[in-house]
Amino acid sequence: MGNLFTINTGYRDKLRNLQYLNRGIVFILDLVLSCIGTLCALLVVWFIKGRSDILYSIEYVMALATVISALLFFFSRSYKRSIRFSTLRELNGIFFLLTVKCLLLSLVVIRQEMLNIRHIITCGLLDMVISSFFMISSRVFIVSIYHSVLYKDSKTNNVLVYGDNDYVSLLASQINGNEKIPYRVVGILSKIPRRKGFKIAGLQVYTWDGDLDKLLLSVKQNITHIVFTNYTDFNSESNGLVYGCIEYNIKMLMGGEIQSLDKQNMQHQIKNIDIEDLLQRDEITIDIESISQEIKDKVVLVTGAAGSIGREISIQLASLDVKRLILLDISETPLHNLELDIQKGFSNQDITFILNDVRSETRIEDVFERNKPDFVFHAAAYKHVPIVEDNPCEGVLTNIWGTVNIARYSQLHKVKKFIMISTDKAVNPTSVMGATKRIAELCVQGLNNISDTQFITVRFGNVLGSNGSVIPLFKEQIARGGPVTVTHPEMIRYFMTIPEACRLVLQATTMGRGGEIFVFDMGEQVKIDNLARKMILLSGLIPDEDVKIEYTGLRPGEKLYEELLTDVESTQMTKNEKIRIAQADRIDARELTAKVTKLIKYAENADITNTIKIMKQIVPEFKSNNSEFEVFDREKFVVYR
After folding, report:
1. Which span out of 178-182, 265-269, 346-350, 379-383 was modeled with the highest average pLDDT?
2. What are the catalytic residues?
3. Which of 265, 439, 603, 630 is a plausible cystine mate for 396, CB 3.0–4.6 Å?
């Protein structure tokens, strides 16, 4: 025969998809409950006072209460509101309507002189209380039935929400109130000890003291997930909790931002936490309005547009009101892929895709002649340290001459702003790649001193998700079962996301006035060995047991840590607390030009020895590391003509 309370699956699905209870039913239910409240009030007063005049007037009063209630409910449209999504504001609205009903009813009865004024006031107060109780209780009952009976099998995952901000209670209520989300919040986890034992939004508050075993025992339910409400909590005090969750196989989730939280799309706003989230910080905020105004109706050129940074910059720019977007890259297939992707979302935007080499004078001149850009974002560069270390002349020709070539034509064609993408490897460089980027920075700064074009440099560290990033490599190695290769157990790096990097670049467009090197507050450096171990743990495996970690040693040109400033640079604050401006010594443009001209000639002639020597003259802090070029740091060298 089955359980009396078992609901047929087909009916349950129909009820689950039912958005609103029939409005006519809601209207009649409210009207009946309101009238029952009035009747109860009259009977209570009659029973206590024993006045027969109340019974004689009961038919008239009930008819009057029915008419007044019906008119109030109809004109307030309270019956059109969804009961299952009732809020405190809506319940207050019901209480207000019933108060108005009782006042109107009392005034009419007093005017007819049917009852004693004291009895009328008593009946009115009782009516208001009893009717409110009935109507509010009915809504609570319906919501309870809706969630407890219809969805008792859908919420299979017990969840704790971690945090101490106002968003926590809202997120918990939204999760428990949304049948499409397979999570049930059973408590709130706080890091404030004095909140232990409190209740927030009807949920028990537990405190995090670093002991996960103790916490799980106190909850007395099988916790499958913990929801974090911001990346700051996730990456600071809660780190012990994060590692405990990994060890106990408790899934970690991140709640969507409060301004985007809505009932219909919440399942898309609560996402699993991946390794990238272990490196997340509060992302840089930008003044999108000022950026839009700066480049509105302007022609914008992006070099290296098919690379990781150039691609994101191109997409960000395509979403703004630029007059025309010119996307230039030397790599055919990535440029073709960019064209296919960007035309899907921006088919109405005027975008030109150019296959070109930044080192070609005649072809770059043609690009500027034809398109006359107002802004240039220069992201084209060789960036892989070992490859450039093995091919230093090519690195010089692309990273230095390519930059000078684009910058010179920007100057000649009176480009308003030239924004160069640099790297933290340019600071006290130990590799050819880093030295080429530092020389490119100097060239750009030197041109700024003799040009109407505003030359701006943006310097940041490793980018998550970029081509050649360590994270995709580690993921691939873990998927194969290892080993995971780490160059050195003490190697540390700064990390940032591609959107962060591109926000910084775009903000530099409005903040820069020429000659600046913008650096980003990138937080603490991350030890690569720890990063690899976290990734293995997040994959449900144990480092050194399930997946081996091998140390391969530093590659040519690599160093253990990166810096954002040289020894002679200091910084000044900007209006954005995450962005600083590096203050460097002034550059002798004439002397720099002479040396760079020689450098380019040596590189064109594939003269590696003199190419490296003159680079070390231009950048005295360039000290090769784990490289064949270390010999030039141990002797006084002469550059041959």
Report:
1. 379-383
2. 425
3. 603
